[in-house]
UniProtKB/TrEMBL annotation:
GO terms for biological process: cysteine biosynthetic process from serine; L-homocysteine biosynthetic process; transsulfuration. It comes from the Bacteria. Keywords: Lyase, Pyridoxal phosphate, Transferase. Its EC number is 4.4.1.11. Its cofactor is pyridoxal 5'-phosphate. It holds the Pfam family Cys_Met_Meta_PP. This is Methionine gamma-lyase. It is an enzyme of class 4 (lyase).
Amino acid sequence: MTDAPNFGFDTLQIHAGARPDPATGARQTPIYQTTAYVFRDAEHAAALFNLQEVGYIYSRLTNPTVAVLQERVATLEGGVGAVACSSGHAAQIMALFPLMGPGLNVVVSTRLYGGSITQFSQTIKRFGWEAKFVDFDDLDAVAAAIDDNTRAVFCESIANPGGYITDLDAVSAVADKAGLPLIVDNTSATPYLCNPIKHGATLVVHSLTKYLTGNGTVTGGIVVDSGKFDWSASDKFPSLSAPEPAYHGLKFHETFGPLAFTFHGIAIGLRDLGMTLNPQAAHYTLMGIETLSLRMERHVENALKIGKWLEDHDAVEAVTYAGLDSSPYKDRATRICPRGSGALFTVALKGGYDSCVKFVDSLEIFSHAANLGDARSLVIHSASTTHRQLTEEQQVAAGAAPNVVRISIGIETADDLIADLDQALTKANA
Ligand SMILES: *Cc1c(COP(=O)(O)O)cnc(C)c1O
């Protein structure tokens, strides 16, 4: 498809990045299940290895099926390029890798996916990186946490597990003022509900595992670059602005301009870290994205109906869904994700921890599983599972207190889901 910025989301989710296969005319994007690609001649090979020509060498770096996925997600997010990777967590490392180094830090929101909190608070320390956790509703605290060694600011658009909405306009203004890129994890919102780049994000990361594939069949991730950050404005980002010894002193930003981050992600990140997405997974994700807008509309419609129903239930203390009139994030949601507040939220039960455990054990349509963004409805008791490694203080800050259950509303018939929740709440209270 030719680039036409005026196409609607529904058209782009089906066509962006794809064209009939040049060899066979195949209308659907083929799964290029190949490791290597034959060079035309030695000169062609040399040009590819020198990054003087764009093409295919080896599938750890680039693959035609994966390339379609990259272009599609980049287009849907309003970015210039994207690098797909083997998981959402891989995408987070791939986003930080060109920016960070020993002794440097990233300022991150306390409201993150539980796995991200562990990745940032524990594992990245092994690289000599540090994460400084702050409440992103407190902009002064975000600004105060930034120091000379900060290289990025990181948050989620619709934050896991509570479905809180981050004020991306305000946070990106703080990052901008400090000359730093804002990285937004847009997994829970998807590009249908929120485009972080429009709100000032430099990079957008996704777990493809969730809504983008949408049916629990893939583990994958992607980093999208807005192409808008000036990596050469300071000496803080030498991986992108200074000569790269592994490519004869090439400077990524000078050579590739707005595509610097994407080229670096492939030519250095995937080449040496190897967190590559495989073509089968890219295929499943492309299939999922074709129906993203339709699914998200139903996810949101169901979440709103079920959120309201839960809020009025006697056994329920609170529901965090930002789409509800009672939510302090209602106004922000209208600005940041105008098509809806997603389908992920938490429910606090009056009966506490024990009631939560009985509740998740009694559900029949909802599965108790460590996933979200699936066509089927899922539930998890975060405090005893995904957020188990955290201290109780971290659990509360992350919206995963012991009396809280996280719910990911699927696209089943809403009344069936309500009936299931009703019978499980009755048992939980018995
Ligand atoms: C699942 C998830 C991740 C991690 O993605 P994986 O594909 O499981 O590695 C990161 N952020 C958010 C918001 C997620 O929901």
